[in-house]
Amino acid sequence: MNSRFSLRSVVLAAGALLVAAPVIAQHDHHGSGPKTDASSQNAQLIRVTDQDASWAAAERAKYPLTTCVVSGEELGSMGKAPEYIYRVKGRPDRLVVFCCSGCDEDFLKNPAAHLAKIEAGKSKPAGNAGGGHNNHH
User: Fold this and answer.
1) pLDDT tens per residue across span 104-116
2) Using CA atoms, how far apart are residues 118 and 81, in angstroms rounded to an integer?
3) Banded model confidence at residue 42, pLDDT cuts 50, 70, 90
4) CA pair distance 10, 49, nearest whole angstrom
5) Following DSSP, what letter does each residue of 96-122 receive, concatenated?
6) Per residue in 115-132, pLDDT tens?
């Protein structure tokens, strides 16, 4: 009977771990360190700081969109548009501008698609957006 009870305890504990793992992983995602693209451990989305001011100013002058690359909302329509550096080891840094601070997480779900919108905007008149999302924050 003791071995039956022990086996049941092990099975229940393993099940609890399987259920808790996604919650633990989600909690870690919201840490204070640089955000990392789930598909590439080399990619980071880093908030532009005062140390990046001159680089950001030069990149902002060339930035082709006036709308959020994630939501399609006008940049600045929800306050100061947050600017981020998308950094991948071995590639040039990229400026990415969002309408609000919540779009960074949506960006990281599929950065390649959003970066493609920025590239497409370079060949079109300013003001073209990337595609929107229905459940905007």
Assistant:
1) 999 999 999 999 9
2) 16
3) confident
4) 49
5) EE-SSTTHHHHHHHSHHHHHHHHHHHH
6) 999 999 988 754 444 444
Instruction: Give the Cα separation of 49 and 87 in Å (integer).
Output: 14
pTM > 0.70: yes or no:
no
Among 41, 58, 48, 35, CA closest to 105? 35
pLDDT at residue number 106 = 94
Structure tokens at 1: 């009977």
Structure token digits, residue 112: 């390649």
Element (H, E) at 59: helix 53-62
Q: How far apart are CA 33 and CA 50, in angstroms?
A: 17
Distance CA 103, CA 129 (A): 14
What is the Cα gyration radius of the chain? 20
Dist CA 92 CA 82 (whole Å): 20
Q: 35: Cβ–Cβ under 8 A, 6 or more apart, which residues?
A: 29, 44, 45, 46, 104, 105, 108
* Domain boundaries defined on the chain: 1-31, 33-137
